[in-house]
Amino acid sequence: xxxxxxxxxxTNWVTLIFMVLLLCVFLLKGFHRTKLKEYFFAFxxxxxxxxxxxxxxxxxxxxxVVLFFFTxxxxxxxxxxxxxxxxxxxxxxxxxxxxxxxxxxxxxxxxRILEKLFVVLxxxxxxxxxxxxxxxxxxxxxxxxxxxxxxxxxxxxxxxxFLFGFILFLFVIKLGLLFANNKxxxxxxxxxxxxxxxxxxxxxxxxxxxxxx
Length: 213
Prior knowledge:
By secondary structure, the chain is an all-alpha fold. Helix content is 81%, strand content 0%. Helix 1 packs antiparallel against helix 4.
């Protein structure tokens, strides 16, 4: 039997990324401790979504900016792990992570801009503000829940099925809450919702998946 040479790849940079993301959490806690807690428990607090709509906080304030980069960093690392553990090749390289992260930052930035144009174009801004706000908040909530699980997955060698099953479970909760809290809008604007889902939720991730794999 021929021996297989073990490929030893330094993963110190992964630890550094975790430390940067952890620093983001500390910054968010320092900027607005209560709001960070509300984001974490947003699945159980519908009133937080209402208060965020009424507050109409700028997307360029320091809390929102740090939270955005934390979310993109967490999902970038999650996608990176997906590529490593579901591919036949060894991809554990920092250059690939940066490419993945840049793709996520660009994707989410362009997506938010196009969402604004979409609702303005079809004159449905008033009707969709609750739906879009909740969707954005729940995305950040998922990133906050995913971060500690990624740490356990990387250092405690949790099974792949646990990590990706947990992530799928979170997204199912997100979709269920979006439908339950916005069913009147979804049913009354079904055509626009289907158009939105196809254009912004299905097509872009599918294209990214094909490009990455």
